[in-house]
Amino acid sequence: MFGNTVALALLSLVLADDPSPYVPTNVTCPYNASFTRNADSLSRSESRWIKSRDQVTRPLLIDWLNHSNMSDFDASSFLSNQTIKIGLAYSGGGYRAMLAGAGQLAALDNRTAGSNQTGHLGGLLQATTYLAGLSGGNWLVGSVVMNNFSSVEALQHDKNLWNLDHSLIDPGGFNLFSDADYWDTIVTDAQDKQDAGFNISLTDLWGRGLGYQLFNASEGGQNLSYVAIRDYDVFKSHQMPFPIHVTDQRQIGQTIIDTNSTNFEFNPFELGSWDPSVHSFTDLKYIGSQVSDGDPDSNQCVVGYDNAGYMVGTSATLFNQFILQLNSTGIGGWAYDIIEDILQDHGNDGDDVALYSNNPFQDESYVTQNDEELLTLVDGGEDGQNIPFQPLIQPERGVDVILAFDNSADTGDSWPNGASLISSYERQFGDQSNNTIFPYVPDNNTFVYGGLTEQPTFFGCNRTNLTSLFSDSLPESERYYPPLVVYIANSYHSYSSNQGTFKLSYDEDELGGMIENGYETTTQNNGTIDSEWRACLGCAIILREQQRRGEEPTSQCQKCFDHYCWDGSIVSDTSNGPSRRDGKNNTVSNQAHSTAVAAEKTLRSSDAAVPWRKSWSSIHHNSRTSVLSAIRI
User: Which of 191, 385, 596, 611 fits as disulfide partner to 409, beta carbons 3.0 to 4.6 Å?
Assistant: First the structure.
């Protein structure tokens, strides 16, 4: 089954005495500890942090607006006693989303070469309050923040990071699965974690692999906990946005959609959900501890469960589906045998679920679904909400405007078609909405054939029109109007950035092309498509505060809104849509959820999707005591 060299290497790992630094450890619990709280407000830690961040962002935003060529507007006077909260949301979509998103982020960063020139947008990142990512967008956010809030340029040119020439999975070059040393480290990390009494899954392997590509840390972040960010100087001095990472809860074998899913988030302080089914948060540092109703069961608590790679990998468990389809990956030899052995021990269910044991919300008084021993989390876009809106539309955070970067593969040729916004819009009418409001959006045809994916589009411009989304019984004083959404979809400018979600390798030219195209998507070709674009973005940023004050927009801003705001019209004739910049015909799915995503999310229980599963019972494994056979649900 395995070559002699690999077998000996694995045996040496089994005989090793010292557990891997990846393994969570026991510590004495804090005095009078209670880790879980009701989600009726922000945590005190986040509230204090944001209050200090506001003092940083206000002068930076004033400066950015003052350099935006906005007519008849005095930023210093307007923001003299007020802070505007900006949220950035980066969608899922594998390395396509990570790299296109990297360019989109770089366009807002004043550290990017040329970003402060006329027509560019540098400095807006520094004035941003929240930075949210999901799945592939989460890899971007995680890599930026865990590398001391590095710039995209710095990460791109670091020879130890973002080396995507060879797939993480397919053998060759710098590749974890073809290099026995790397693979042995990953496998023994997972084995040691289980030996310590914790459940493990494919996400342990996937997350550890991602760590080598995303983090400039020893052994790919083997001992890098996510909460370590609390001690970063750049975080303690509030010189970066507050990062939020989105994932979904799904029980093994369950199907989730936008209206019934439980959206989880984790940030430097907490893990939890605003949704009614959980409506609780727990201290991220101590996840894995045995608790009842939020209180430790003993004086021994667990730390280190929040490995940065595992946390980032949790928000992208869709990629476990790639591993499950071994026959189509080109993997062969001992690497194929290793992964097949892992899947043999998994069985047919739960392969794409990240397991958190012990469930910090078990027996929690605030939680309606509180009897599960394991907390099972999956890719944050599995419910169709492929842009991380939910954390940013919570009234408690008071976000004024969201720049939503959509790098989804919704159409037949892997461009966005607005499906993510439609899912988030529909969610507010389900039981999990928690009275959050999302602006009106059109159907998929209108997104594509109306040209809404070819240029930035604003949703929720007319606040008065949003009143019909509120319950009639809710008084005006208690109504929280959602942030204005500035929707920026992946589109062609200088590079064909519609790469497949399961494309796992990018050479240097491809990587650079993806990032450059993302930059140009955000800046509208560096202001050459619309020289007023930066001013119009400034108008969008200040709109909610103007509306709260009862102020009318300037004539310049009104022209911007006439051009960029969705006016409520629906496109029914799809025979004459606007031409795309790549010169190809428009293609669009007529369903709210894309055909491309549906194809990628193959049913885990389908023998047709994973044909070699049928023969599992007839496969004879001679090494059932292998270190690899330990990886089970």
Answer: 596
Tell me the residue type at 497: S
β-pair partners for 565:
458
Nearest CA among 406, 57, 482 for reference residue 242: 57
Q: Could you tell me if 249 and 274 are in contact, meaning their C-beta atoms sit under 8 angstroms apart?
A: no
Residue 36 sits at φ, ψ, to 5 deg, of -110, 145
> Domains, the chain, ranges and CATH?
4-621 (3.40.1090.10)
- Token pair for residue 503? 């494309």
Mean pLDDT calculated for residue range 87-116: 98
Token pair 């730390």: residue = 303
Give the CA distances from residue 315 to residues 158, 308, 433, 596, in Å, rounded to whole numbers and listed in that order: 24, 11, 21, 19
pTM, two decimal places? 0.88
How far is residue 136's CA from residue 244's CA, in Å, rounded to a whole number?
A: 14
Residue 10: which region, alpha, beta or left (left: phi > 0; alpha: psi -120 to 50)? alpha
| Dist CA 174 CA 166 (whole Å) | 6
CB atoms near residue 573 (< 10 Å):
8
Check if the beta carbon of residue 216 is closer than 8 Å to that of residue 160. Answer: yes
Tokens (6 digits) for 264 = 């989880």
- 328-358 confidence digits (pLDDT tens): 545 555 555 656 665 555 434 555 688 898 8
